[in-house]
Structures are given as structure tokens and as C-alpha cells.
Amino acid sequence: MFQKAKNIDTAFKGIKNFSIAFVAIYTLSGGMVMYTCLDMVKNMQGKIYVLANGKALEAYASDRKDNVHVEARDHIRSFHQYFFTLSPDEKYNQASIKRALYLADESAKQAYDNLRESNYYSNVVSGNVSQTITVDSIQLNTNVSPYAFRFYGKQEITRPSSVTIRSLVTEGQLRNVRRSDNNAHGFLIEKWITISNDDLSTKAR
């Protein structure tokens, strides 16, 4: 009688221990599955698909703070290229300047108005002048907003009879604004001024 009770008690303890172990393993497995699923969802939320030329390309979303330095430098570079790249084509020049002015405030508009009033753009067209710009370097401080910058570059001005290389140094600051089709980086150049724009060399063609 006592032996049967002891066997029943042993069997009960065995079942109890097995049940506890089963629940613990089940809970642990469920937790791991849930963690894995949440991690997968998080990773999927960071992915986007862009349709280009009929093909779906995978891209990854990232925080603005991760790319602020790269985006700010590209914004500055794009503005200077639009503003200073000219050709003997009035419509091209107007379109390029228009794109540049979307990236900056009234300070850039004032610089454009001054050049226009001095007949700079009409002389470019009538004189069959081409002007391009190359970037030497961009100094940028992204530790404090608005972000102060200084741009160093060179202009190549090609006339029918000569090619002139000029240095170009400008400075200003960047303010965060809402992104748009005309301002993809979401920055606005403010207090933009030209520090120097001197001839470096001229050679005959």
C-alpha cells in the first residue's frame, strides 16, 4: 500500500518536473520566435523598393543624422554647380539658375540680380562663353545648427580666344527645411557671400 503511494508520488513529481521543463522550453522558444519576428519586421521597415527603368531596386532607409554631412556637402556642391555652370544658351542658363535659387535664400538671389544688372549673363550668351566649375574642397561644421560652410573651387571660363581659370571661395550656412522635389536634401543656404574670385591663369586657344 505504502509502496504504491510512493510510486504514485514519484510519478507525480516526474510529471510535474516534465511539465515545468516543457513550459519553460515552450516559453523560451516562443520568446525567441517573437524576438526574431520583431527583428525581421524592424529590418523590413528600413527597406524600400524603388522602381527604376521597370526594375525594382532595394534601398535602405536611414536616419537623417546618419547622412547629414554627406547630404549637406552634396547640397552645397549642387548649388554651386547650378549657379556657376553657364553656356551660350540663355534658356539653359535661366533653368540652371532657377534650380540653384531653390537651394538658397535671398542672399543668392541678390548675387544673381547683381550679375544680371551688370549684363554678365547676356555677355556670356553674346560672347559665346562657356563656364564650368570644379570643387576643390568644402569645409563644413555640422556640430552646431545652422551649419557653417566654406566652399573652395575653380571656375574654367572658355571664350572663343582664351581659357581663364579663376579661384572661387564662398561661405554661408545651411538651415534645415522640408524636403521637396526642388530641394531633395532639405537644406537652405543662407547668408551666402563670395569671399574671393581671382584669376589664376589665362591661355590662348
From TrEMBL:
Keywords from the named record: Membrane, Transmembrane, Transmembrane helix
Transmembrane segments annotated in the record for this chain: 20-38
Superkingdom as given in the UniProt entry: Bacteria
Database matches in InterPro entries: Conjug_transposon_TraK
Protein's name in the database: Conjugative transposon TraK protein
Protein source organism: Sphingobacterium detergens
Lineage start: Bacteria, Pseudomonadati, Bacteroidota, Sphingobacteriia, Sphingobacteriales
